Amino acid sequence: MNRINRSIVVSFLAVLAIGISATSSADETCMSPYMAKIVGQEDFVYVWTLGREGLGDEQDKMVTVDVNPISAQYGKVINSVSVGGRNEAHHSGFTDDRKYLWAGGLDSSKIFIFDVHTDPAKPTLHKTINNFVAKSGGVVGPHTFYALPGRMMITALSNNADHGGRTALVEYSNQGEYIATHWNPTDQDLRGAVKSGDYADGYGYDVRVLPRRNAMFTSSFTGWSNYMMDFGTLLQDSEAMKRFGNTVVKWTLHSRKPEKILDVPGAPLEIRCAWQPDHNYCFTTTALTSKIWLIYEDDKGEWHSKEVADIGDPSKIPLPVDISITSDDKGLWVQTFMDGKARYFDISDPFAPKQIYEKAIGSQLNMISQSWDGKRAYFTSSLLKNWDKKGAADEQFFKSYTWDGKDLKLEFEIDFKAEKLGSAHQMRFGAYGLYGMQRPDTTTQVESPSVDDGLASQ
Amino acid sequence: MPIFKTMDKLKAKTTFKAIAATILFAAFYGVNFTALSADLKTDRQGVYLAPGWGKLSFEAPAAGTYSLPVIGQAADGEVLDTEGESQSLADLMDDKVTLLSFIYRTCDDVNGCPLSTMVLYTTGNKIAEQQGLKDKLRILTISFDPEFDTPEVMKEFSESLNVGKTIDWHFLTSQSDQAIKPVLESYQQSVVPDATNAGEGRNKFSHILRVYLIDRKKQIRNIYSMSFLHPDILINDVKTLLLEEAIAEAAINKK
Q1: Is A172 helix (H, G, I), strand (E, B) or coil?
Q2: In this complex, do B109 and A16 lie within 8 Å of one another by their Cβ atoms?
Q3: What is the pLDDT of residue B179?
Q4: Average pLDDT of chain A to the nearest whole number
């Protein structure tokens, strides 16, 4: 393997080698360590978008935004692939070779696999998995698509028995063939795991891995009956409000066995693990209690969970949603949905995060994606169809900012309602350089990517 | 003298052997890898070394305590052996558990092809030392650079590793880029020619490091990348498949 293009696309290994003493930050760090990373200028952002009744073709779609300033199409929507209906479009993730982008529907449990390598500017729908629930043995609501070598590890949110929060990890081959289901541990069936606190709820949400510790972590949200409910109705339903996850589970990565259940009360959502070789910890935030939690390994190899900071004023329920760690493990972006703010925490001391910046991005805010160098940050607005705000407060946008370490500066924005696209949700980056391709509008040879994997977390 | 003969004479402790093997492999491949730091985590240039070059930082799960679900069928394909004879991959996978890797001979990334060859060498030797296991494992190493990696080059490579009598290891190539392409596609082995390094007299490629564990039914049971490509893990995975077979056979015999 050759690590020859550190300015365009390189692996995390190369970045680690270069940047171990430098400062850099990245949303690319939020992805699997098993794939090539874009560390220079990304060409595209793929936005997995919810279709809306009465807007455009009303279908869920993968929208491509040109974000390279040298492009004549900079700041424009250049492609859109509709998938034939509405599925509660939510999250997406690349395969380890980054040739395909898998995107899921939380309501229909369909999985849409897009070819992003044949023409990175114009993804096409390559395959649709329609039988995820049946194949997996009743798992509902595919959420996170996380690349492992030759496979996709898929978290889910629910099940088809009671549509509650008990759920599983489901493994597929890169070809889209079902491999295995790994149910989350519960009080009724701990599956060999140790219950370290009060909870063993079996709920699911996100997944991340630390291969160097043979560790995999899952977080926990809520089931179909809650995430498809109107948000205002849900908040008034005291019984429904009890049905949220309170756990992070530490699994053995190689054998896929749950090992220890950690209490993290209040619906821990995204998990972001540190990248530096000796940083054996991950962060998560709790949606209902507005806290940052640290999941860390002690000197004896035991894993623990610890509440380490408030996010805004928890009594006002700002509802933290997406988070993004920097590649030097010194910063954490935390988005809060209700007040539409992006908040930046100094996490140099992981046990004592300190908020050092905040900016209102919109009336509501969910996802963030940063460039590898941390100089660009993209934001989108939608959380869930029935949880997004109503009326004028239901802004649906894609916004591009630059970040100089002190302030976010708006570069351009796209109104997804005005463009008749839908509600903008998760973003992933694309680049010609990933596939050894040359930009069609330049004579500059784009060098091949380095595609080492895994060492990111050795 | 082949470097592995030299290495085999090292009768020191495992750690020392690992360091020696690492240095010798690096020298053998001519990698830009002048020396190692004491802890085997980086070279002097600060490049982090994959776990396979040193001691695993966790205990590999014990053989038979976990399952390895079928990922898919291992594809067939036509390749050339070191005598230039055409061979079927499916035939080469007969009878034994197989570890399959894709390399190119002039690969100089310390965490790429040299790593996989080193880990397979160690795995094969350790398996061969264990009673009853020696004849259970086959290793296939396939070049995706047939222009330079001719059967003669692969034969020379094989002989330099000096594993003929110890490990059932086949070094393979193909007639042309077109001939190896369907095999690479079947295994989803991503290989991107590196045009920027052309003109140095040899090909360069960017590729994902993958090693495949294949059972005797020619089913892929694990895929290793850099992070889990370690002899301790490979050996226990091979044993897990063999235990699975033994249990299945016992169940049939009981009936």
Answers
A1: strand
A2: no
A3: 96
A4: 90
Domains in chain B (CATH in brackets) are 60-254 (3.40.30.10)
A453 and B209 within 8 Å at the Cβ level: the answer is yes
The DSSP code sequence of A363-417 is: SS---EEE-TBSSEEEEE--S-TTTS--GGG---EEEEEEE-SS-EEEEEEEETT
> Is position A454 within any domain?
no
| Cβ-Cβ contacts under 8 Å, B41 against chain A | 277, 458
CATH of the domain at A266: 2.130.10.10
Contact A20 B50 (CB under 8 A): no
Q: Does A2 touch chain B (CB under 8 A)?
A: yes
Q: How confident is the model at residue A30 (pLDDT cuts 50, 70, 90)?
A: low
- Residue A458 has a pLDDT of 30
Q: What are phi and psi of B214, to 5 degrees?
A: -125, 130
B185 at interface of A, judged by CB pairs closer than 8 A: no
Lowest mean pLDDT among A117-126, B62-71, B203-212: B203-212
At residue A452, does pLDDT exceed 70?
no
B228–A457 CB contact, under 8 Å: no
Distance from CA of A292 to the nearest CA of B (A): 28
- Is B199 in the A-facing interface, judged by CB distances under 8 Å? no
ipTM of the complex model: 0.88
Q: What is the pTM of this model?
A: 0.90
DSSP result, B157-177: HHHHHT-TTTS-EEEEB-S-H
